Structure formats: structure tokens, C-alpha cells
Amino acid sequence: MLKKWITVGLASAFILTGCNKVEEVQKESEKPVEEEDTVVEEVSQTFEAPLTGVELSDEPSGRAFGVMINNDPKARPQSALNQADIVYEVLAEGNVTRFLAIFQSEHPENIGPVRSARDYYIDLASGYDSLYIAHGYSPEAQEMLTSGVIDNLNGMQYDGTLFKRASFRQAPHNSYISYENILKGAKQVGYDMSETPEALPFYEEDELASITGEAAENVTVAYLKSNLFKVDYKYDTSSKKYARYSNDEQTIDLDSEEPVLLDNVFIAEMEHTLLDDSGRREIDLTSGGKGYLLQQGKLLQVEWKNVDGRILPFLNGEEVKFVPGKTWINIVPTNPGLEQTVTIQS
Predict the structure, then answer these.
(1) Long-range contacts: 280-283, Cβ < 8 Å, 24+?
(2) A single Pfam family, by name (predicted)?
(3) Assigned domain for 35 exists
(4) Cα 219 from Cα 10, distance rounded (Å)
(5) What is the average pLDDT value for the chain, to the nearest integer?
(6) Would the pLDDT of 339 be above 90?
(7) Domain count for the chain
(8) Is there a domain that residue 264 lies in?
(9) Rounded Cα–Cα distance for residues 206 and 213 (Å)
């Protein structure tokens, strides 16, 4: 009998122990499963400035504006040329060149000296839907501006208000304007300054090594053999930029003394026709022709085409990309032509 109770007791103990283990397993399975922390990497979105291709952290905004800038020796050094995205250098009357500086990515506090308008500069500014800034005009340019072909602010109407006269220079080499006053004037007239221009094509970083051409570290552009308007571009291998010189003096900013440094220099040959005894010109901006493109210390022989008002380089029928950064465009006459106007030294 005692043996029977011992056997029954052991069996009961075994059953209870088994039940406890089952309950422990069930309790363990009922515990919430701890989830592993999921790390989500935030990918920061980057943008590019439309006219320089330079990387931006914020989406670009704002209309381009083109300013006529004086290049008379009495107007040098100028203000804000180093901040322009694109600069066109073109002959005005006689052997004098003048600049159309197009800004979008930078907003200078002081720009000038501002000079008078010409019809072909208006056409070039229109290619970027720029608000066109000038002080004065030729008869042809005045007719275009009054007919409304381009939104514009002119010092003839705003001298002493939007346009300020510098005391250290004499007229017509002393008219200046600020970005703040450009916005102020645009608001007064009702011009929209929000529309960003269409972007130019730019090389990606890993494409820069594919740039080809003959070595061109020192390039001279001689406008009608006038030393006062002779331009030299000197390539710096460390910065991979071209410094600009005029009449053997480096082009710097009047206010900051920072040099004009360029990533692209585009020299385009165009037909020039004299219109009158004053030396006013007509320039063929539409027919296309020969050009030189300087990038990364190399010169590539290209063709230029007018694409919706923009003078752009082409090779074998395909548009050539720009190196991200600043661009200077020299327009030279077909007579005497590129070969006689431009000297290349490696």
C-alpha cells in the first residue's frame, strides 16, 4: 500500500512539474517581442544653380537680371563682375568693349558703373528672360525698350533714385545700382522677379576628365589691336580657373578686390556691320559660326549656335556642356576673325 502511494505521489509530482514548465513556456511566448531599432538614413536633397551648375542646399529661385557695365579704362576696376554668372563682352562704338553681366545666383550690393543700352545686348539679355538694367540707350535700343520687348529699368528715368552717382568718378563712368534697388524698382513697375531661368547643361564631377582639346593656359583676345581692350586669360592649374586681365592688369572687384575667376571662356566669331559715322554696329547673333571654348586649361574648336537667344557651343551637332562655375563670352568680329584675334600659348 505504501509503495502504491509513493508511486502515485511521484507521478503527481512529475505531472505538476511538467505543468509548471508548460506554463513557463507559455508565459515566455506571451511576452512582447522587442523590435530592433530601424535606422532610417535621411538623404539630403541637393540642387544646382541654373546658370553656374554650382551645388546648392536649397532650391534655386529668383529671376536673372542683366546689367550693362562700363569697360572704359576710366571705369575700371568695376564692381560685381566677379559675382556675375555669365558675362558677355562685345564691341560697342569704335574699339571699345562693353559688358552685359547676367546675375542669378548672387545678389551684389553694388553693381557698375552702369552704361547705356544697345540693341544686340538687349537680344542677349532676352535669352535668359533677364530684367535688363542700363543707363541710357542708342536710338535703336530706346525704340526696343519703349516697345516693351524686355522688362527693364533705365537710369534715364531713375537717376538719383534707383541709380546712384559715385563721387570718386565722373559721368558717364559713375552710375551704380544695387540688387536691393533692382528689386525695389521691379516692384514699383510690377515686374515678376520669381521665375528661375532654364538651366544650362553642365558636366558632372566624374565627366570633367573627359574634356579634350589643345593645351591653352595663356590666351589673348585682341579687339581690333587696341591694347586698352586687349584681354588675357591665364589658367591656374591649382584652382583650375582662368584669371582675366585687361590691358595687362588683372580684372578685380573694386570693392572687395577679389579677382574675376572663370571656369568657362567662350569666344564666338560673328559678323559685325557698321551702321553710321558714330561707329554703331549691327551684330549677327543668329547665323552661327566658329568658336573657341576654354575649359580646364584646354581649347576646343567648336561652333556656336543661337538657341532661344542663348549663344551656346556645339561640336559635331551636339551641345557642349559647361564646367560648373562662372562663364565669360567674348564676341569678336569675323573680320579679322578668330585666327587673327585670338593668340594661344600652352
Answers:
(1) 280/93, 280/118, 280/138, 280/140, 281/91, 281/92, 281/93, 281/118, 281/120, 282/119, 282/120, 283/90, 283/91, 283/120, 283/331
(2) DUF3048
(3) no
(4) 106
(5) 89
(6) yes
(7) 1
(8) yes
(9) 18
| 69 residue type, one letter | I
Cis bond before residue 113 (omega within 30° of 0):
yes
Q: Check whether 119 has a pLDDT greater than 50.
A: yes
Check if the beta carbon of residue 309 is closer than 8 Å to that of residue 124: yes
Q: Report the C-alpha gap between 302 and 192 in whole angstroms.
A: 36
DSSP 276: S
- Domain CATH number, residue 106: 3.50.90.10
Write down the pLDDT at residue 238.
Answer: 96
Asked whether residue 159 is domain-assigned, the answer is yes
Three cell numbers written together for 57: 542646399
Dihedral in degrees, nearest 10, Cα atoms 172, 173, 175, 178: 150
What are the CA-CA distances from residue 248 to residues 199, 245, 309 (Å)? 34, 6, 32
pTM: 0.87
- Mean pLDDT, to the nearest integer, of 224-249? 94
Return the exposure string of 110-123: e unless at least 16 CB atoms fall within 10 Å of the residue's CB, then b: bbbbbbbbbbbbbb
Is 8 a member of any domain?
Answer: no
Alpha-carbon Rg of the chain, whole angstroms? 33
How far is Cα 29 from Cα 54, in angstroms, rounded to an integer?
A: 58
